[in-house]
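Exercise 3.2. Students should predict the tertiary structure of the chain below and write it as structure tokens, then compare their answer with the key that follows.

Predict this chain's 3D structure.
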Amino acid sequence: MEQELHDFLINKTNADVVLQHIYPFAYNCISKELSRDIRSFQTDMLLLQYMYNYYYRPSILYTDLMYYLNNPRQSDTQSMPAFFHIIRRFYSTKDLSDKAVADIYYKLIYNGNDDRIVCSRIKNIFGMLSPEERTDFINLYLLSG
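Answer key:
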């Protein structure tokens, strides 16, 4: 089977692409933390989509996520909204000023009626949250209501 896959990839691309660009990623294992994050994202997102699409509209989920991001209780420092901590963690390779973090946050804000854009923003925001934060959000906004 592995030889068949190799031959298929060689026929569709070329040997250099397969050896230099596909194999290094195909054979690298992802960390357990990343694997847990991916699995929990899928499970949590399905739960949210079912509950919010069945009982509410996507805009309600978006509003709840924005409230969650603005809640200082979620962050390390009580005076700063949670989005400062979450965005800095998500962009950990960059040294972001408070203004740069706020600019990223403001780009997540959407006031229109297009559910496709709202759903895209929801996935972006929900993906920025850690598995623990996603669980906390579900407990606070979905299960405690």
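Discussion points: The chain has two domains: 1-30, 31-143. The first helix runs from residue 2 to 12.
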